[in-house]
Amino acid sequence: MNVRPRRRALELLRWASLGVAVAVLVVFLHAQGQSFDVSYGRSPSSSAGVAQGSAGESSATTVPSVEEMAAQLAANRVVRLPGSIASWNEQRVREVIGSEDYRILVAPPGLDEEERLRVQGVEQQLRERGVRNSTTIKVVGTEVSGVLFRAVPDDLPSWRAQFAAGDVTGPLLTLITALQDRPAPSDPDELSWREPTARELAVVAADLRSTGLHRAVGATLTDVPVKTAKEAFPDGAWFAAFPQQRDRAPLPRYGPALARLFPDKPIVVMHGLWIEYHGPGQADFAELVGASFYGQFSGVLGRTDYPQRNVLGVYLDRVIDVRYSGVFDRPLPYRPADPLRVALPALPWVFAVCVAAFLALSVRSLRRAEGGLRGRIAGGAHLGGAPARLAGLTALAVEMSLLTDVRSDPALTRGIVRLQAAREALGQDLPDRHVHTLLTEATGELDDAARTLGIPGYRPENYLQGRLT
Fold it and tell me: Domain residues for 221?
């Protein structure tokens, strides 16, 4: 059996292990310096929001001078400036005020900084006019403030009443009771609803079927931000816009009516700056989006006169954010796995295994070399170096033939016969095992002849060791 190919394969495996270990080490060290980008499921929405003064809000509104507003407020407990939109349940507010002196100044939304400062200066002007025991409450748009406090709604019914109908009953009651150091009264929904008539519903439905957009008289929505709407509702959505309800009249409940008429179609309804969603998946995300959107933007929406289109765009961005967060199972964009990132935790183990294999094969190689040397010296059954053994033993037989006598000659003759047979086997390329068997037999015969002669230096073990060293 020829073992040379096997040894060659083990040697190749040894150096291949070292090469792989070096390559893994280089890759691992290079990966440690790479940057990473946490963008999995990143929403394509705009994160800028609506910045005051840059979103197309109205700047045409204004207020009188501080003196004029103070004069009106000194003569009347409630003063409504031109363009004001806020309303409230007057009976409930009067009951909470009682006999105390509260003055309420109602200003329009969209005031610039100078005009807001004029509104804030009215209270001091009243005191200079001798009205000292009164408390002034300012309502700018639907933002309610007084003294050092500002009252803000904090739930969907309150936000709906504020932005769909301009109702500020809740914030007024909360602020007045806080100034009186009393617990706030219950906060029932002040917004009244009614079912739309068949004719009203038919007009809206016809527009939606035709263009996907209904714009009622008085609504400021001119068009829908198409790209944002597509990202928010990939299957398409219809939009119906209505102006803010005035004079505390009942609000037509278009959303549920349209959802019953078109059960499989996403529908977004706007009443003033109030936006609500009706359609597939409503229970999964509509309240979440509404609470998140108005919880963040109700303050700026209350005091600023934004067009409906701008507010709708930001609302749709919030819908996109919720979709991409996976809240209601929208598949996230596919991103192929990075093989390096996947394999990186395993690289130290691959390196360790390769180094261990290289060391083990190196030790094996050293032991094999040492064992081969000892086997050649001892003339054992080592399977390598047959030509060298034959040459060494032949030289020994030649030297011994000059000294043999009658007693040692038979063993020497048998050894020479075995050596000739081994030489012929090598010449005929017979198996190595057969050659080594003949050499082992020759070694034994030559060893008997050396002992018979009484010359220890001619014993094959000693003779071959001396020649190799």
Answer: 193-324
Quote the crossing angle between the two packed helices 308-324 and 282-303, to the nearest 10°. 140
Q: Are residues 216 and 303 in the same domain?
A: yes
Residue 61 lies in a domain: no
Would you give per-residue pLDDT tens digits along the chain (469 residues)?
A: 444 566 677 778 878 888 887 887 777 777 666 555 545 455 666 655 554 554 445 556 789 999 999 999 999 999 999 999 999 999 999 999 988 999 999 999 988 889 999 999 998 888 888 887 889 999 999 999 988 889 988 899 999 999 999 999 999 999 999 999 888 887 777 788 999 999 999 999 999 999 999 999 999 999 999 999 998 898 899 999 999 998 888 999 999 999 999 999 999 999 999 999 999 988 888 999 999 999 999 989 998 888 999 999 999 999 988 887 765 554 555 566 667 667 777 778 887 888 888 788 777 766 655 554 444 444 443 434 788 888 888 888 887 777 777 787 788 788 888 888 888 888 888 888 888 888 888 888 888 888 888 888 888 888 877 665 5
Q: Which two tokens stand for residue 437?
A: 């068997």
Residue 382 falls in which region: left (phi positive, over 0), alpha (psi -120 to 50) or beta: beta
Residue ending a domain, among 122, 146, 179, is 179
End-to-end CA distance of the chain: give it in Å, rounded: 30
> Judging by DSSP bridges, how do beta strands 213-215 and 238-242 pair with one another?
parallel
Report if residue 255 sits inside a domain: yes
Here the tokens at position 33 are: 């310096």
Report how far residue 380's alpha carbon sits from residue 440's, in angstroms, rounded to the nearest whole number.
7
User: Total structural domains in the chain?
Assistant: 3
- Same domain? For 160 and 226 the reply is no
Q: What pTM was estimated for this model as a whole? A: 0.61
Q: Is residue 344 part of a domain?
A: no
Sign of the Cα torsion 455, 460, 463, 466 reads negative
User: Is there a single domain that holds both residue 110 and residue 199?
Assistant: no
Residue 45 resides in a domain: no
CA torsion 210-214-215-217 (nearest 10°) is 100
Query: Which stretches of 212-305 are DSSP H helices?
Result: 226-232, 254-261, 282-303
**Same domain, residue pair 74 and 107:** yes
Task: Tell how many helices (H) and how many strands (E) occur in the chain.
Answer: 18, 11
Residues 145, 335: Cα–Cα separation, whole Å: 50
Domain boundary among 151, 179, 207: 179
